[in-house]
Design brief:
301 residues; alpha+beta; Creatine Amidinohydrolase; 2 domains; 18 strands; binds cobalt (II) ion
């Protein structure tokens, strides 16, 4: 880790993310608007003096991750929904990342508890020198014990300055990777569990994007939207609705056209909703931590 790494900034980002997650659990209620919930959670983070590391993800049932409401989204939480909230605050280039599952019916407690138990067991293994496959094996064993599957093509990750999904990958099963954790490294561990296939695929909805590069479009609207993204979100992920909020309800067409332009120019990364392949129910838990010599310090606390 670089010598000028600011651990107090990452801890602050982690703490605000955790506070936002606690707050979020209170806004997820049967009948409530998912869009309003997202807006309230994001406002909470900004009122704490942080920015968004990424748009809040509110992924329901078979959607494992990357659902954030569209502009004017009419979706409401329904009876029986299993709601994953994945939230991250940003302090300068330091990124928080944590998640929990709200089970509105209580019928999926086994799935939710499996994620939480696996996360705590995984955290107890974290220390400098630990091979990442050991963590994955622990998560997988806890899933198996309960007769469910870990999601194998999702996992934890290193968190570097400016980069939420850096270098090290922390699997949710024993993938044979003997990469060792390093002292001072910041990582997030995120077991996902399902009664389905154990794999996710890209769905059709995409509302989260990231722009990496300049848009020399001939369209003034596109250039204006590009400049706003550079100034407000830099190369961090943003939501389509944030742009429509900024440019007005009538701008949705221009915003979509600008995104198409960026994609055509090869400067747009998109994050489609990730859907359980067999439509299985999905739960998730995630915490972020600093690896220490003999243990770790959870910072989303
Ligand atoms: Co994460």
């Amino acid at each position: 880790m670089d010598s000028d790494y600011d651990y107090s900034a990452i801890k602050e980002a982690g703490h605000i993310s955790y506070e936002a997650l606690k707050y979020a659990k209170g806004v997820v209620k049967e009948g409530a608007s998912v869009l309003e919930a997202a807006e309230r959670i994001e406002k909470f983070i900004m009122e704490k003096g942080a920015l968004m590391a990424f748009p809040v993800n509110i992924s329901i049932n078979k959607n494992a991750a990357h659902y954030t409401p569209k502009f004017g989204d009419t979706l409401r939480f329904s009876e029986g929904d299993v709601v994953k909230i994945d939230v991250g605050a940003r302090k300068r280039e330091y990124l928080g990342d944590c998640a929990e599952t709200v089970d509105l019916s209580g019928e999926w407690a086994g799935l939710v508890e499996a994620c939480e138990e696996a996360l705590e067991a995984a955290i107890s293994l974290v220390k400098a020198g630990r091979e990442v496959r050991d963590i994955g094996r622990e998560i997988e064993n806890i899933a198996k014990k309960r007769g469910i599957a870990p999601i194998k093509n999702l996992g934890g990750h290193g968190v570097e300055r400016d980069d939420l999904h850096a270098s090290v990958f922390i699997p949710n099963f024993d993938n044979g990777d003997s990469t060792r954790l390093e002292e001072g490294q910041v990582i997030a561990i995120e077991p996902f569990m399902t009664n389905g296939s154990g794999y996710v695929s890209d769905g059709e909805d995409v509302e989260i994007f990231q722009k990496n590069g300049n848009a020399n479009s001939r369209l003034a609207d596109t250039r204006e939207i590009s400049a706003f993204i550079d100034e407000s979100y830099s190369t961090y992920p943003f939501a389509t609705r944030w742009l429509v909020d900024k440019f007005g309800a009538a701008s949705e067409f221009k915003v979509r056209r600008a995104l198409n332009d960026f994609a055509r120019l090869g400067i747009l990364e998109s994050f489609p909703v990730l859907v359980e392949r067999k439509g299985g129910m999905v739960a998730q838990a995630e915490k972020e931590m600093v690896v220490q010599k003999d243990s770790c310090e959870v910072i989303t606390a």
